[in-house]
Amino acid sequence: MVLGAFETGPDITETGQALIDHPDQQVKRLGYDLMRPTKELFRHWARCRDGTLTRGGFERLMQPIRQEIDGLLLRGVFSGNRKLQGMCRPLYNHRDWLWTFLEVEGVEPTNNASERALRPAVIWRKLSFGTQSASGSRFVETILTVVETCHRQSRSSFEYLTAAVTAHFAGQPAPSLLGGV
């Protein structure tokens, strides 16, 4: 799981668990310290999601949690411990991304939806042994993106691809994949 929209590196939950699992006691301590407010965050999120906590109440409860997590990440950055610095610096440097879910309604504090969307591509890569060229990789990326986008829009990917190929051979632009355009 990931906080906010930060999906390009380790997330706070994964980082906390990796720190806890580390043999260095300083690293392990910060991991435990990070997991406490992270678990509290997800307890509040569950209440907000199920309607037993208002969005405004959730945002208020998150202020001290956000400050605590930011402070713990900063502690890791300035710890002098290379392992802690390497795991905490990217999260601290992009901490605003971690909290996008507080500022943008509809964004969840996890990347579960993204991971589910990527799962078919990962399975395809494992079963097919990938591609043999950069152009093959671009083709697969494009097709998988089209299929997932159509799926999310409840559109037929077959109908979209048929229309795109027909448009190509007619010298016309491909139909838009942007919703409502």
Please outline what is shown here.
This protein is mainly alpha-helical. Helices cover 70% and strands 0% of the residues. It folds into two domains: 12-103; 112-169, no CATH class.
Molecular shape: extended
User: How many domains, in number, for the residues?
Assistant: 2
Strand segment count: 0
Structural class: mainly alpha
Radius of gyration: 21 Å
Query: What kind of sheet is the major sheet?
Result: none
Can you tell me about this structure?
- The chain is 70% helix and 0% strand.
- The chain has 181 residues and is an all-alpha fold.
- It folds into two domains: 12-103; 112-169, no CATH class.
- Helix 3 (55-77) packs antiparallel against helix 4 and helix 8 (134-152) packs across helix 9.
- The radius of gyration is 21 Å and the shape is extended.
Q: What is the element layout, followed by pairings?
A:
Elements: H1 12-20, H2 25-50, H3 55-77, H4 82-93, H5 95-98, H6 100-103, H7 112-128, H8 134-152, H9 157-169
Helix pairs in contact: 1-2, 2-3, 3-4, 8-9
Q: Which terms summarize this structure?
A:
181 residues; mainly alpha; 2 domains; extended
